[in-house]
Protein backbone atom coordinates (compact mmCIF):
# COMPACT_ATOMS: atom_id res chain seq x y z
CA UNK A 1 0.00 0.00 0.00
CA UNK A 2 1.09 3.52 -0.67
CA UNK A 3 0.44 5.41 2.54
CA UNK A 4 2.48 8.53 1.77
CA UNK A 5 2.09 11.57 -0.44
CA UNK A 6 5.04 13.67 -1.68
CA UNK A 7 4.38 16.54 0.71
CA UNK A 8 5.97 18.17 3.75
CA UNK A 9 6.48 15.46 6.40
CA UNK A 10 5.50 15.60 10.05
CA UNK A 11 5.46 12.07 11.36
CA UNK A 12 4.02 10.73 14.53
CA UNK A 13 3.80 7.18 15.85
CA UNK A 14 2.52 5.90 19.15
CA UNK A 15 4.48 2.72 19.84
CA UNK A 16 7.25 1.92 22.35
CA UNK A 17 10.87 2.97 22.06
CA UNK A 18 13.82 1.73 24.11
CA UNK A 19 16.79 2.62 21.99
CA UNK A 20 16.03 1.53 18.42
CA UNK A 21 17.44 4.87 17.25
CA UNK A 22 20.58 6.62 18.57
CA UNK A 23 20.03 9.40 21.10
CA UNK A 24 23.41 11.10 20.71
CA UNK A 25 22.67 14.45 19.15
CA UNK A 26 19.12 13.30 18.44
CA UNK A 27 16.32 15.78 17.78
CA UNK A 28 12.57 15.53 18.35
CA UNK A 29 11.97 16.89 14.84
CA UNK A 30 14.13 15.77 11.92
CA UNK A 31 13.28 16.72 8.34
CA UNK A 32 9.93 18.04 9.58
CA UNK A 33 9.25 14.60 11.05
CA UNK A 34 8.17 13.63 14.55
CA UNK A 35 7.90 10.07 15.86
CA UNK A 36 6.21 8.99 19.08
CA UNK A 37 6.39 5.41 20.28
CA UNK A 38 4.43 3.69 23.05
CA UNK A 39 6.04 1.90 25.93
CA UNK A 40 4.78 -1.65 25.26
CA UNK A 41 6.66 -2.75 22.15
CA UNK A 42 9.55 -5.18 22.22
CA UNK A 43 12.83 -4.25 20.53
CA UNK A 44 11.91 -6.27 17.46
CA UNK A 45 8.48 -4.64 17.28
CA UNK A 46 10.10 -1.22 17.61
CA UNK A 47 12.32 -1.93 14.63
CA UNK A 48 9.34 -3.17 12.60
CA UNK A 49 7.34 -0.03 13.34
CA UNK A 50 10.19 2.37 12.67
CA UNK A 51 10.93 0.69 9.36
CA UNK A 52 7.24 0.75 8.48
CA UNK A 53 7.23 4.49 9.23
CA UNK A 54 10.47 5.07 7.35
CA UNK A 55 11.61 7.07 10.39
CA UNK A 56 14.53 9.39 9.66
CA UNK A 57 17.94 8.82 11.23
CA UNK A 58 18.88 10.91 14.23
CA UNK A 59 15.33 11.39 15.48
CA UNK A 60 14.43 11.00 19.15
CA UNK A 61 10.90 9.58 19.45
CA UNK A 62 8.44 10.95 21.97
CA UNK A 63 7.47 8.07 24.26
CA UNK A 64 3.75 7.52 24.86
CA UNK A 65 2.77 5.97 28.19
CA UNK A 66 -0.37 4.64 29.86
CA UNK A 67 -0.37 7.79 31.97
CA UNK A 68 -0.47 9.83 28.75
CA UNK A 69 -3.48 7.83 27.56
CA UNK A 70 -5.28 8.61 30.81
CA UNK A 71 -4.42 12.30 30.38
CA UNK A 72 -5.46 12.67 26.76
CA UNK A 73 -8.39 10.25 26.60
CA UNK A 74 -9.58 10.31 30.21
CA UNK A 75 -12.98 8.71 30.62
CA UNK A 76 -13.85 9.28 26.97
CA UNK A 77 -12.81 5.81 25.85
CA UNK A 78 -14.01 2.70 27.74
CA UNK A 79 -11.19 0.83 29.46
CA UNK A 80 -12.05 -2.27 27.42
CA UNK A 81 -11.20 -0.38 24.23
CA UNK A 82 -7.76 0.72 25.39
CA UNK A 83 -6.30 -2.71 24.72
CA UNK A 84 -4.15 -2.99 27.84
CA UNK A 85 -0.93 -1.82 26.18
CA UNK A 86 0.66 0.95 24.13
CA UNK A 87 1.30 -0.45 20.64
CA UNK A 88 -0.38 1.51 17.81
CA UNK A 89 1.77 4.06 15.97
CA UNK A 90 1.00 6.98 13.72
CA UNK A 91 2.99 8.89 11.15
CA UNK A 92 1.71 12.39 10.47
CA UNK A 93 2.77 14.66 7.63
CA UNK A 94 1.75 18.28 7.81
CA UNK A 95 0.00 19.55 4.72
CA UNK A 96 -1.63 22.86 3.86
CA UNK A 97 -5.29 23.15 2.93
CA UNK A 98 -5.74 19.48 2.03
CA UNK A 99 -7.79 18.32 5.00
CA UNK A 100 -7.00 15.04 6.72
CA UNK A 101 -5.98 11.88 4.90
CA UNK A 102 -5.80 8.88 7.24
CA UNK A 103 -4.73 5.29 6.61
CA UNK A 104 -4.72 2.55 9.25
CA UNK A 105 -3.17 -0.90 9.52
CA UNK A 106 -3.93 -3.54 12.20
CA UNK A 107 -6.30 -1.17 14.03
CA UNK A 108 -9.55 -2.83 15.10
CA UNK A 109 -11.62 -0.24 16.97
CA UNK A 110 -10.76 3.38 16.13
CA UNK A 111 -11.85 3.93 12.54
CA UNK A 112 -10.30 6.42 10.12
CA UNK A 113 -13.29 8.72 10.57
CA UNK A 114 -13.08 8.49 14.36
CA UNK A 115 -9.45 9.61 14.22
CA UNK A 116 -10.38 12.41 11.84
CA UNK A 117 -13.29 13.72 13.87
CA UNK A 118 -11.38 13.72 17.16
CA UNK A 119 -8.29 15.34 15.65
CA UNK A 120 -10.20 18.03 13.78
CA UNK A 121 -12.11 18.90 16.93
CA UNK A 122 -8.80 19.10 18.83
CA UNK A 123 -7.42 21.47 16.20
CA UNK A 124 -5.59 19.27 13.66
CA UNK A 125 -7.13 20.00 10.26
CA UNK A 126 -4.39 19.41 7.66
CA UNK A 127 -2.26 16.27 7.72
CA UNK A 128 -1.56 12.93 6.09
CA UNK A 129 -1.63 10.29 8.81
CA UNK A 130 -0.53 6.67 8.68
CA UNK A 131 -1.34 4.55 11.73
CA UNK A 132 0.13 1.10 12.20
CA UNK A 133 0.91 -1.63 14.72
CA UNK A 134 2.76 -4.96 14.48
CA UNK A 135 -0.25 -6.65 16.09
CA UNK A 136 -4.00 -6.05 16.03
CA UNK A 137 -4.84 -3.29 18.51
CA UNK A 138 -7.72 -0.92 19.24
CA UNK A 139 -5.74 2.14 18.09
CA UNK A 140 -6.19 4.43 21.08
CA UNK A 141 -2.43 4.62 21.73
CA UNK A 142 -1.85 6.24 18.35
CA UNK A 143 -4.43 8.93 19.05
CA UNK A 144 -2.78 9.59 22.41
CA UNK A 145 0.62 9.83 20.74
CA UNK A 146 -0.61 12.30 18.15
CA UNK A 147 -2.06 14.62 20.80
CA UNK A 148 1.09 14.44 22.93
CA UNK A 149 3.40 15.05 19.99
CA UNK A 150 1.52 18.16 18.89
CA UNK A 151 1.67 19.45 22.45
CA UNK A 152 5.41 18.86 22.84
CA UNK A 153 6.34 20.31 19.46
CA UNK A 154 3.95 23.28 19.43
CA UNK A 155 6.79 25.81 19.65
CA UNK A 156 8.47 24.33 16.58
CA UNK A 157 5.41 23.54 14.45
CA UNK A 158 3.26 26.53 15.40
CA UNK A 159 0.30 24.18 15.93
CA UNK A 160 -1.10 24.50 19.43
CA UNK A 161 -4.02 22.41 20.69
CA UNK A 162 -5.96 24.31 23.35
CA UNK A 163 -7.06 22.50 26.50
CA UNK A 164 -10.67 23.39 25.70
CA UNK A 165 -10.50 21.76 22.28
CA UNK A 166 -8.76 18.67 23.60
CA UNK A 167 -11.51 18.31 26.20
CA UNK A 168 -14.10 18.63 23.43
CA UNK A 169 -12.29 15.90 21.50
CA UNK A 170 -12.49 13.68 24.59
CA UNK A 171 -16.20 14.40 24.94
CA UNK A 172 -16.72 13.63 21.27
CA UNK A 173 -14.96 10.28 21.62
CA UNK A 174 -17.19 9.42 24.58
CA UNK A 175 -20.37 10.31 22.67
CA UNK A 176 -19.11 8.55 19.54
CA UNK A 177 -18.45 5.40 21.56
CA UNK A 178 -21.96 5.50 23.04
CA UNK A 179 -23.77 6.20 19.76
CA UNK A 180 -21.63 3.57 18.06
CA UNK A 181 -23.32 0.92 20.18
CA UNK A 182 -26.51 1.67 18.26
CA UNK A 183 -25.39 2.56 14.75
CA UNK A 184 -22.07 0.65 14.62
CA UNK A 185 -18.49 1.88 14.91
CA UNK A 186 -18.03 1.95 11.14
CA UNK A 187 -20.93 4.35 10.66
CA UNK A 188 -20.99 6.56 13.74
CA UNK A 189 -17.97 8.74 12.87
CA UNK A 190 -19.34 9.39 9.41
CA UNK A 191 -22.55 10.50 11.08
CA UNK A 192 -20.61 12.92 13.30
CA UNK A 193 -18.79 14.16 10.22
CA UNK A 194 -22.09 14.92 8.48
CA UNK A 195 -23.45 16.82 11.48
CA UNK A 196 -20.32 18.98 11.62
CA UNK A 197 -20.51 19.69 7.90
CA UNK A 198 -24.19 20.62 8.17
CA UNK A 199 -23.52 22.93 11.11
CA UNK A 200 -20.77 24.59 9.06
CA UNK A 201 -23.24 24.99 6.20
CA UNK A 202 -26.26 26.24 8.19
CA UNK A 203 -24.42 28.13 10.98
CA UNK A 204 -27.10 27.69 13.69
CA UNK A 205 -27.37 30.41 16.31
CA UNK A 206 -29.48 28.70 18.97
CA UNK A 207 -29.51 25.37 20.79
CA UNK A 208 -32.85 24.55 19.17
CA UNK A 209 -31.37 25.05 15.71
CA UNK A 210 -28.45 22.77 16.61
CA UNK A 211 -30.87 20.06 17.77
CA UNK A 212 -32.87 20.44 14.56
CA UNK A 213 -29.70 19.89 12.51
CA UNK A 214 -28.82 16.78 14.52
CA UNK A 215 -32.33 15.40 13.95
CA UNK A 216 -32.17 16.32 10.26
CA UNK A 217 -28.93 14.36 9.73
CA UNK A 218 -30.23 11.41 11.74
CA UNK A 219 -33.38 11.29 9.61
CA UNK A 220 -31.38 11.54 6.39
CA UNK A 221 -29.43 8.48 7.47
CA UNK A 222 -32.47 6.59 8.80
CA UNK A 223 -30.91 6.48 12.27
CA UNK A 224 -33.11 6.17 15.32
CA UNK A 225 -31.62 7.04 18.69
CA UNK A 226 -33.03 7.13 22.18
CA UNK A 227 -33.94 10.48 23.67
CA UNK A 228 -30.91 10.23 25.93
CA UNK A 229 -28.57 9.63 22.99
CA UNK A 230 -30.12 12.53 21.09
CA UNK A 231 -29.54 14.73 24.13
CA UNK A 232 -25.89 13.61 24.25
CA UNK A 233 -25.34 14.54 20.63
CA UNK A 234 -27.09 17.87 20.97
CA UNK A 235 -25.18 18.79 24.12
CA UNK A 236 -21.86 17.90 22.47
CA UNK A 237 -22.47 20.19 19.51
CA UNK A 238 -23.83 22.91 21.77
CA UNK A 239 -20.56 22.78 23.71
CA UNK A 240 -18.65 22.99 20.44
CA UNK A 241 -20.73 25.99 19.41
CA UNK A 242 -20.06 27.72 22.73
CA UNK A 243 -16.33 27.16 22.25
CA UNK A 244 -16.52 29.30 19.11
CA UNK A 245 -14.95 26.67 16.89
CA UNK A 246 -14.14 27.60 13.31
CA UNK A 247 -16.76 25.39 11.65
CA UNK A 248 -15.55 26.20 8.16
CA UNK A 249 -12.07 24.97 9.10
CA UNK A 250 -13.57 21.85 10.67
CA UNK A 251 -15.64 21.15 7.58
CA UNK A 252 -12.58 21.69 5.39
CA UNK A 253 -10.47 19.42 7.57
CA UNK A 254 -13.03 16.64 7.24
CA UNK A 255 -13.76 17.06 3.55
CA UNK A 256 -11.76 14.01 2.50
CA UNK A 257 -11.57 12.12 5.77
CA UNK A 258 -14.82 10.24 5.33
CA UNK A 259 -14.20 9.12 1.78
CA UNK A 260 -13.28 5.50 1.26
CA UNK A 261 -11.55 4.57 -1.98
CA UNK A 262 -13.35 1.26 -2.29
CA UNK A 263 -16.73 2.93 -1.81
CA UNK A 264 -15.78 5.42 -4.50
CA UNK A 265 -14.79 2.67 -6.92
CA UNK A 266 -18.07 0.86 -6.28
CA UNK A 267 -20.19 3.80 -7.37
CA UNK A 268 -22.11 2.90 -10.55
CA UNK A 269 -20.89 5.88 -12.55
CA UNK A 270 -17.29 5.16 -11.56
CA UNK A 271 -17.60 1.48 -12.46
CA UNK A 272 -19.12 2.50 -15.77
CA UNK A 273 -16.25 4.87 -16.47
CA UNK A 274 -13.60 2.22 -15.82
CA UNK A 275 -15.51 -0.35 -17.85
CA UNK A 276 -15.51 2.05 -20.81
CA UNK A 277 -11.85 2.87 -20.22
CA UNK A 278 -10.77 -0.77 -20.17
CA UNK A 279 -12.87 -1.49 -23.24
CA UNK A 280 -11.19 1.37 -25.11
CA UNK A 281 -7.73 0.15 -24.08
CA UNK A 282 -8.63 -3.37 -25.17
CA UNK A 283 -9.87 -2.13 -28.54
CA UNK A 284 -6.68 -0.12 -29.00
CA UNK A 285 -4.44 -3.14 -28.52
CA UNK A 286 -6.69 -5.26 -30.72
CA UNK A 287 -6.24 -2.70 -33.49
CA UNK A 288 -2.47 -3.08 -33.23
CA UNK A 289 -2.70 -6.80 -34.00
CA UNK A 290 -5.14 -6.49 -36.91
UniProtKB/TrEMBL annotation:
Organism field: Exiguobacterium profundum
Full protein name: DUF1002 domain-containing protein
Pfam families: DUF1002
InterPro entries to which the protein is assigned, alphabetical: DUF1002
